[in-house]
Amino acid sequence: LGYARHELGELDRAGDLFRSGLAASEEIGLFEIELSAMWGIASCQAEAGDTVTAARLLGWIAEGKARLGVPDDADDLALEETVREALGQERLASELVSGAALGREGAIDLALGRGPARPG
Q1: What is the C-alpha separation between 76 and 116, in angstroms, rounded?
Q2: Selection from 34, 8, 12 nearest residue 21 by Cα
Q3: Closest Cα to residue 32, out of 65, 73, 1, 59?
Q4: 72-104, pLDDT tens digit by residue?
Q5: Any idea what DSSP says for residue 70?
Q6: Number of CB atoms found within 10 A of residue 76's CB
Q7: How far is CA 10 from the centre of its chain?
Q8: pLDDT band at residue 114, thresholds of 50, 70 and 90?
Q9: What is the distance between the alpha carbons of residues 44 and 40, in angstroms, rounded to a whole number?
Q10: Cα–Cα distance measured from residue 107 to residue 1, given in angstroms and rounded to the nearest whole number
Q11: 1-5, long-range: CB < 8 A, 24+ apart
Q12: At what angle do helices 89-100 and 51-68 cross, to 10 degrees?
């Protein structure tokens, strides 16, 4: 539902749905759903202008996908390019590293807005 609302341009509602999905997947431990919900949140954040949060989430997502052996798709590359255009290559690279260093709990806290996310 989050993706459908996102496509309709309803970013606030899409973000709410992605956050609900992330919270539910956190409870039951569905890592692939966590990645998908995080990507949706990152996309909404980027479109809303919070490209730093989007970049950090993308860093964590990339780390998780690498562990699963899941390749990037066209949507991943397009979102990263959007964030790169806003932040520049050096800042994007730095934020991706910061995001990749977040533990699962830190990344979820960042995505859900539950306080500052710290690497580790």
Answers
A1: 25
A2: 34
A3: 65
A4: 899 999 999 999 999 999 999 999 999 999 989
A5: P
A6: 18
A7: 17
A8: confident
A9: 6
A10: 22
A11: 2/37, 2/40, 3/40
A12: 60
